[in-house]
Amino acid sequence: MTTKVFAPAKVNLTLHIIGQRDDGYHLLDSLVVFVSAGDELCLTEAVEMSLNVSGPYAKGVPNDASNLVWRAAELCGLSAEIALEKHLPNAAGIGGGSADAAAVVRAAKALGRAPKEDVATLGADVPVCMSSAPQRMSGIGEVLAPCAKLPELWMVLVNPIKDVPTPAVFRALKQKANPAMEADLPTWDDAHSFCEWLAGQRNDLEAPAIEIEPVIGQVLDLFPDALLARMSGSGATCFGLYADAKSSAKAAKRIKQAHSEWWVADTKVLEA
């Protein structure tokens, strides 16, 4: 049997680092959404496992058992020929490999295979990527809760194709115990009220990431027309939020013309 599955990019609209465990893992409080840009996978059951990686961002992606996609299939007891088409930049702070791994688990379930262990063993971001609905993520990423329905939102994602290693960003974070979001998140009437609330939240990794790679600050300056601009995850991808498709398309076109060598995606925030 063959099944196709989409792995949407994960975006941290907020990322509050609220502590650090004795084992080194950081505690977080994050509002996560998924968007209409992502990688595509096709799985065909086979006697031997194989992985073929193609697409504009295939370079440097392993095609063996070191890839989370391969490990996800093994976790589900699935042997398959896997075709992974990479449209998302690597190590970009938008899910990437975790989203791909979660997509494989979903595909395996469709083929009648269930994971033999908790998917969190694949990585802290994999559990949240099992659903494309907006979620509040806490703990080290394993505590998930649905959030209030978000207003319609469009998002332009920009990555300057710079590698910003996550461990280095966390090392540069001076304060590890920062305030969380409020216990009960509000509801929002429209994109404007949502972004007004969002502006009062943070990505605590944004400042240290800019110290390591100053071009991130330049990317954020490209969104003067957005309702809000922020970095996602540990970078280097940044996003601008818009209330309508016309505004986001206009911004994406402008940025692409100015920086043709960068990754720019005009997307819509997924509701589920």
Detail the topology: elements first, then pairings.
Elements: E1 2-12, E2 16-20, E3 26-45, E4 50-54, H1 68-75, E5 80-85, H2 97-110, E6 135-139, E7 143-146, E8 154-159, H3 166-172, H4 191-198, H5 206-212, H6 215-220, E9 228-231, E10 238-242, H7 245-258, E11 263-268
Parallel strand pairs: 4-5
Antiparallel strand pairs: 1-3, 2-3, 3-5, 3-6, 6-7, 8-10, 8-11, 9-10
Give a quick set of tags describing it.
single chain, 272 residues, alpha+beta, Ribosomal Protein S5, domain 2, Alpha-Beta Plaits, 2 domains, 4-stranded antiparallel β-sheet, 11 strands, 24% helix, 28% strand, globular
Describe this structure in words.
A hairpin with a 6-residue loop joins strand 9 and strand 10. The longest helix is centred in the middle third of the chain and has 14 residues. The mean pLDDT is 96. The chain starts with a strand and ends with a strand. It has 2 domains: 142 residues, Ribosomal Protein S5, domain 2; 120 residues, Alpha-Beta Plaits (2-Layer Sandwich). The strands form 2 sheets. Strands 1, 2, 3, 4, 5, 6 and 7 form a 7-stranded mixed β-sheet that branches. A 4-stranded antiparallel β-sheet has the order 9-10-8-11, sandwiched between helices. Helix 1 runs parallel beside helix 2. The chain contains 7 helices and 11 strands. By secondary structure, the protein is α+β, with helices and mostly antiparallel strands. The protein is globular and about 55 Å long.
